[in-house]
Amino acid sequence: WSFTAPKGAPPAPSLKTLWDGLWDRAVPVGEDDSNIGANDVLRSFKRTLDEDLFQEVEMDGVPVSSSTVTGSNFFEKQMEVFKENGPAVVSNFGPLKTLSISDPMMIKHALGQRGSFGKGLLALVAEDIFGKALITASDPELWQSRRAATSAGFHSQWLRSLTADFVNCTVQAMKLLDERVNYKEVVDMESFYLNLALDAVGLTIFGVEFEASDQPPNRPQSPIVQAVYRLLKETDYRQADPSNLLLMGAPDLLAEVAAPRVAEYRRSMKQINEVLNEAISQALEQQQLATEQDLRRRSGGTLLQFIVDLRDNQASRAQLQDDMRTVLIAEHETVASVLTWATYELAKNPRIAQKVKEEVQNVLGGRSPTYQDVKELKYLRWVITETLRMYPAPPFLARSPLKDLDLPNGENQTVRLSRGSLLMIQLAQLHRHPGIYERPNEFWPERWQKAFNGTGEYPVPGWRGYDPQRVTGLYPTEVATDYAFVGFGGGEFKCVGDQFAMLEATVMLSMLLQRYDFQMVYEDLNTIGLDLAATIHTKRGLLTRVSQSNCYTE
Ligand code: HEM
């Protein structure tokens, strides 16, 4: 395949000129560098029509795929599409044309170029859920200011202090798991992790004790877990089919009758906002304004209190609510997902589980972990990285260029992208790229021990390879892997909670693996079922037989 447009394309027919003129008047292209609006997204629909009516293919030279990649054999289908078309392919996303990429060099360009891309359709459909700052970045100035306040709050001193909170949440959750073990019940570990992650975010981010882990770790989940999941699902519905937005403005009574989904969404939003409002009131009551430097010297406290106290970056109550709702959703689903799939893979791979247990036993010797221990638990952190490689959360990132631009691969071949066109960065496909990863479908944490620079199959021009010498924090970042692993994204919109998440997952898994052995009821992904949303869920829960292990004494 090649990116080069064929020479000597036929001249545009006059009907086409008329058609283009009509569109330019009715749905004008937004100004360069301004945020992507509904008009720009509508123009993506025009590109679909252009192709149908005038056989005008916008991304000439890029293969077109008609496969729909969803369902339980998602990973196999993605691999088929890759092998058939290469790492750049045009496909349909509802009625819109999308360019999907899994080439690390193109991804590096798309994520790493500051100010060139917005979140496009995602921002439009999710603004009422997340607001205009974090995640959607639909008001770039506001995003910059909220990003600065939030990322300042995730400073290393605070992160260290969280270890004890994660330990306490896990101890609490294990009490219930112990009962299930004694009754020899089958446990849905996905529900267990959703509850546990919610307790952890409540405690550390805004100081609310949800006590979700006090619920039996089998479905139905706690109402607040369901509410968070409901909001996330809503973004998926709307992205998959923007017509799902149509009834969003309907009066409550009409929504109850004609659109139960919308009514349920509103109830979920209200439920979450009530909890957050109370936490914000409390933080405002205890407000003690200080500079960032002084705040960094305080130990403990919540992220919310840090942000409320940050003298130079004050925000309205409504803005704080958006910030907190976003962080709540961003932490909860993703961390629960990585814990779920790590448990699945460890249960499937007893050799690896045994190796983790040995490491945990050597480092912890039966006690709870400290921050220093988390640094020592290197193999367990590779297990978590390997899980995120195989089951990234989210499985793709959405972007739209803010002006017409060329997206180059490592050989300087380019795809021309128009302002507002849809770009999908396919993390799940990149992370199983057979030119980058040896045995890409195998769960093999040891791969992160040594440098690698390509398998020779499906060459990746321009890619520098992975070098463990470039790893600085708790996992191999996009810098260490030259954008072959972007589980936490990269560039300006990169996850603010990456080290928080790695710390949380390492603490929780180390404690659970010390105390229990896990055995799956179903091992086959087709039987478990994949539910592809903003993260990868199971369809029927992760049904697990849990038994007592021998190492935990505390
Ligand atoms: C395993 C766990 C996690 C994974 C895999 C993950 C992944 C990601 C990714 C890929 C992005 C980038 C989205 C994009 O580029 O469009 C992101 C953004 C974000 N994440 Fe995470 N995340 C995790 C945990 C967390 C946690 C624990 C928090 C907070 C406590 C958090 C807060 C955020 C926020 C606020 C953003 C938006 C940043 C912005 O818009 O500037 N995430 N996350």
TrEMBL record:
Residues annotated for heme binding in this entry: C495
Entry cofactors: heme
Matches recorded under InterPro entries: Cyt_P450, Cyt_P450_E_grp-I, Cyt_P450_sf, Cytochrome_P450_Monoox
Sections of the chain in a coiled coil: 262-293
GO molecular function: heme binding; iron ion binding; monooxygenase activity; oxidoreductase activity, acting on paired donors, with incorporation or reduction of molecular oxygen
Top-level taxonomic group: Eukaryota
Keywords: Coiled coil, Heme, Iron, Metal-binding, Monooxygenase, Oxidoreductase, Signal
Pfam families (UniProt xref): p450
UniProt family annotation: Belongs to the cytochrome P450 family.
Protein name as catalogued: Cytochrome P450 97B2, chloroplastic
